[in-house]
Design goal:
This protein is of the alpha/beta class. Helix content is 36%, strand content 22%. Strand 4 and strand 5 form a beta hairpin.
């Protein structure tokens, strides 16, 4: 689908999806930035996510829309989505996020204390989303712009995932809960909760996904395909896990911890991939040989950490 490009600079491209919604395509490999968005009302702008060098989004909003940013919507708390937040903390904005990560962001915590001591007083307000919050932007027309913020009950890509839905566009911003296959990461993820929640989300009536990492919007059907992909990763990782030190079952946490080595995990996954099962072929077709092995290793490590505890 072709969209009008309205800005290009600093390895960032901004595309007009509708008169009030703009997709900010960023560069992860070189600049460590996630995708984002601008939602533009009659008198204000709301942004989705605050990637590193957040001052750029402030400048972009001023150049393109000539209106103040009044809210920052954080899809989760990983660095490529929040490290630009300090640029907004001296502004009169409200930061919305999953309530589970408020303790990392609210002013009395170390993250913002460091910022305040270096540059000034924090003027931003913080609101944690426990279930669902509805926002409304006037657009000079009768309808206005509705924005839905909501979280799922389970930990998914992270414990702080939050979703931003624009009903009029049938579009949902997922952060890294949905990404291109080769940029899937599992640090702190609960793959079972992730898969379950994606299947629940897939039942919503939407047409488009704005993913945390992908050069384009994705059709909503991708949600089910991504859940299927995670399910295959889980199956592969569990097979590897069942081959991992069965003799240590029932041993102490310390004994289990001492038995784990990075090289051993890597060899175990390589041997599994050498068997060329249909699941291995599927993962390599989706993510490529290198990233297919990486995602299985990362998921296996999550199982091992849970087992050690």
């Amino acid at each position: 689908m072709a969209y009008e490009q309205v800005y290009q600079g600093n390895m960032v491209e901004i595309f007009k999806i509708s008169p009030y919604f703009y997709f900010r395509r960023a560069n992860l490999p070189i600049r460590g930035q996630c995708n984002g968005a601008f939602i533009v009302g009659e008198r204000e702008v709301v942004i989705v996510d605050a990637p590193p060098e957040g001052i750029e989004m402030l400048d972009e909003a001023e150049k393109l829309f000539h209106k103040p940013v009044t809210a920052v919507l954080l899809t989760h708390g990983h660095t490529d989505h929040i490290d630009g937040l300090p640029a907004w903390l001296e502004k009169d904005v409200t930061v919305y996020c999953n309530y589970r990560i408020l303790d990392r962001l609210v002013p009395e915590k170390a993250y913002l204390q460091a910022f305040s001591s270096m540059r000034g007083t924090c003027r931003a307000n913080f609101t944690g989303v426990h279930d669902k919050i509805n926002l409304y932007l006037a657009d000079g027309k009768e309808g206005g712009i509705d924005i839905e913020l909501f979280i799922m009950g389970d930990v998914m890509h992270s414990k702080g995932d939050m979703f931003v839905r624009v009903p009029a566009l049938e579009l949902i911003c997922t952060g890294d809960a949905v990404v291109e296959y080769q940029t899937t990461y599992f640090h702190g993820a609960d793959i079972r909760g992730w898969i379950y929640s994606l299947r629940q989300l897939a039942q919503l009536q939407n047409k488009w996904i704005l993913p945390g990492h992908n050069p384009e919007l994705l059709p909503y059907s991708y949600m089910t395909g991504f859940a299927d992909y995670l399910s295959v990763i889980e199956t592969c990782a569990r097979i590897c896990f069942m081959r991992f030190h069965p003799e240590l079952l029932g041993k102490t946490e310390e004994e289990r911890f001492d038995s784990v080595t990075t090289d051993e995990v890597k060899v175990l996954v390589e041997e599994f991939f050498d068997e060329r099962s249909k699941d291995v072929v599927f993962l390599e077709e989706k993510a490529g040989p290198v990233d297919a092995r990486r995602v299985v290793r990362m998921t296996l490590w999550e199982f091992i950490r849970e087992w050690i505890r």
